[in-house]
Write a structure and sequence with these properties.
Number of helices: 6
Strand content: 25-35%
Helix content: 25-40%
Order of helices and strands: HHEEHEEHEEHEHE
Radius of gyration: 25 Å
Shape: globular
Largest sheet: 8 strands, antiparallel
Strand order of the largest sheet: 2-1-3-5-6-4-7-8
Structural class: alpha+beta
Length: 213
């Protein structure tokens, strides 16, 4: 006597075999967009009871566009940091201090902001600085860029882009002009470039700009 085949068996047999190509694609991880350099984010919180270097902490490293935005969207905005705190974003292998071998012969393009600008422009300027860094916005002179720093201070905040060689005038000026344009600063606004060697030996108010744009 013949036995009827179960219905569920017939349904199973009627399915088309899954394409190996589709199965392979579904298992692939989401592709990320690599950056030209690997970057390190540092955080500094001033505690006068500790040596300066003990207050500096490495937060994380990243080398893709997606990882940058994941980081940026999960850390405190610069405008909400306590006075005395810094963020620093530097190419991997370079520490955010004058003494580092990649920094000691260099300097910084410095943007000084008033207390009133903190809530209006600080976060916008800092984000644009970060995008200039990771996006290699300075053409062939991007190789001269070491990183960027934001200092949150009660008297007024500062943002700077650090470069590796004060004597490379062509690179320094190109970086300064491009940076000024990217920030959308007015033509009559002036920003200055200070050599780290001068900053290390003089007070902030006594440092003369080596270049201006």
């Amino acid at each position: 006597m013949a036995v009827a085949q179960p219905v569920h068996m017939k349904i199973q047999d009627s399915k088309k075999p899954k394409s190996p190509r589709k199965e392979q694609l579904s298992l692939q991880p989401h592709l990320k967009h690599p950056l030209q350099n690997r970057w390190t984010l540092w955080f500094f919180k001033n505690d006068k009871s500790k040596p300066w270097q003990a207050n500096l902490r490495l937060v994380t490293k990243f080398d893709t566009v997606e990882d940058f935005w994941a980081l940026y969207n999960h850390i405190q905005l610069a405008s909400r940091l306590m006075s005395g705190c810094d963020y620093s974003l530097f190419k991997d292998g370079i520490e955010p201090m004058w003494e580092d071998s990649r920094n000691k012969l260099g300097g910084r393009w410095l943007i000084a902001l008033s207390k009133q600008q903190r809530m209006l422009e600080l976060d916008k300027f800092w984000l644009e600085t970060l995008l200039c860094l990771i996006g290699e916005a300075f053409d062939e002179y991007s190789k001269d860029v070491c990183g960027g720093v934001i200092n949150v201070r009660a008297k007024g905040d500062k943002i700077a882009i650090w470069t590796s060689d004060t004597e490379n005038q062509e690179a320094v000026l190109h970086i300064g002009k491009t940076y000024k344009e990217r920030l959308g600063l007015p033509v009559n606004a002036v920003i200055g470039y200070q050599a780290h060697g001068d900053t290390a030996t003089k007070s902030a108010f006594g440092v003369k700009s080596k270049f201006i744009v």
